[in-house]
Design goal:
Elements (H helix, E strand, L loop, with lengths): L3 E6 L5 H11 L3 E7 L2 E6 L6 H4 L9 E9 L4 H11 L8 E6 L8 H5 L12 E9 L2 E8 L24 H11 L9 E5 L5 H8 L3 E5 L6 H4 L4 E4 L18 E4 L5 H11 L9 E7 L4 H4 L1 H11 L3 E5 L7 E7 L3
Parallel strand pairs: 5-6, 8-9, 8-11, 9-10, 11-12
Antiparallel strand pairs: 1-3, 1-4, 2-3, 4-7, 6-7, 12-14, 13-14
Length: about 325
């Protein structure tokens, strides 16, 4: 049987977090090759097939798949087609995603392959990943789109930060909404824990939602003056359920500078009153120390225990030493 290698892309600077996650949860994978933003592992366990690779959920991987090899740009088309034959997948029915990692070099994939690239990848579709690491270094692999797989090349929806936003927190929630198909209903009420100075609230208000921000730090005046915004300046540890809105709340965004275990406990304690109405939570987990990587599944369990049907842990492009938990109830 041919040896199998698995590739992972990650946000540049988070390679150690990715490697630690693989060490803890996938000990059958051993490190093979590592560059900034791109790591491969040799699979010494049961080999992944297309169905099972779709179920590979790694929080610090923006993209993961079966690694098929590397080539120079002039030989990439032939190499990809040959590999598709070897693993018995239909090249013509695959979507092609082409992206660069930690380099200004760009592969002219559409010209080389004579077809459209970087299209939306629907569920159960096989996707060929072309990963450019330099002018003459293109790695390629394949993944299948599963229920928790993002549909954009390298999970990057390319959201731009508007000049009017008070902070980069705008990017986090905007990327999460696009990547995880969160429906922005103008009737929805959001709680924004850790709202200051107002980047996430700005995005929510921009999309017609009503927002209660909760943060003792100073908010941007443009947010405070918005007619659909209300604010509580009490620290979350000192809040009771009586302090937060009595009316129905559909969504929660939480981005707190607290130990993850404490942050989860405080937020779930407060929103228990909305148990039958809340649709989901976007929760930022700050990885303050490496030991927090070992608790990825434990953190998820808190949300499952609370009644959420879908819980995904995933890093998004704008994040550094952190990742999101997206917890949703069945629509």
């Amino acid at each position: 049987m041919t040896e199998q290698y698995i590739f992972f892309c990650t946000n540049v600077g988070n390679e150690k977090l990715l490697k630690e996650e693989i060490r803890v949860f996938y000990p059958e994978l051993t490190l093979s090759y590592s560059r900034k933003g791109f790591v491969t592992f040799k699979n010494k366990g049961i080999q992944y097939r297309m169905n099972s690779i779709a179920q590979l959920d790694v929080a610090f991987a923006t993209r993961a798949g079966i690694c098929l090899g590397k080539a120079k740009p002039e030989g990439i088309v032939e190499a990809v087609k040959k590999s598709c034959e070897e693993i018995e997948i239909n090249y013509d029915k695959c979507v092609i995603h082409s992206f660069s990692v930690n380099t200004d070099a760009v592969l002219e994939a559409e010209e080389l392959f004579q077809r459209e690239v970087n299209e939306h990848s629907p569920i159960n579709k096989n996707v060929i990943d072309l990963i450019t690491l330099g002018e003459n270094e293109v790695w390629y692999g394949v993944h299948r789109v599963g229920k928790s797989t993002t549909h954009f090349p390298n999970a990057n929806p390319e959201v731009e930060l508007p000049e009017s936003s008070p902070s980069r927190a705008y990017l986090k929630i905007a990327e999460a909404v696009k990547l995880f198909n969160i429906n922005m209903d103008r009737k929805d009420m959001w709680l924004d824990f850790g709202s200051a100075p107002g980047g996430a609230s700005h995005f929510l208000l921009e999309n017609g939602c009503k927002v209660w921000g909760i943060d003792p730090a100073k908010m941007d005046e443009s947010i405070m003056e918005h007619p659909r915004y209300k604010h509580l300046s009490t620290p979350i540890q000192d809040l009771s359920q009586e302090d937060i809105p009595a009316r129905e709340v559909q969504w929660v965004n939480a981005d707190l500078n607290l130990n993850p275990k404490q942050a989860i406990k405080e937020v779930l304690r407060l929103i228990k009153k909305y148990n039958f109405n809340v649709k989901g939570i976007i929760f930022s987990i700050q990885v303050i120390k490496m030991d927090h990587v070992k608790n990825i599944e434990n953190f998820e369990d808190h949300f499952y225990d609370w009644g959420f049907e879908t819980v995904i842990s995933r890093q998004i492009p704008s994040q550094k030493q952190e990742y999101l938990i997206i917890a949703k109830k069945r629509n």
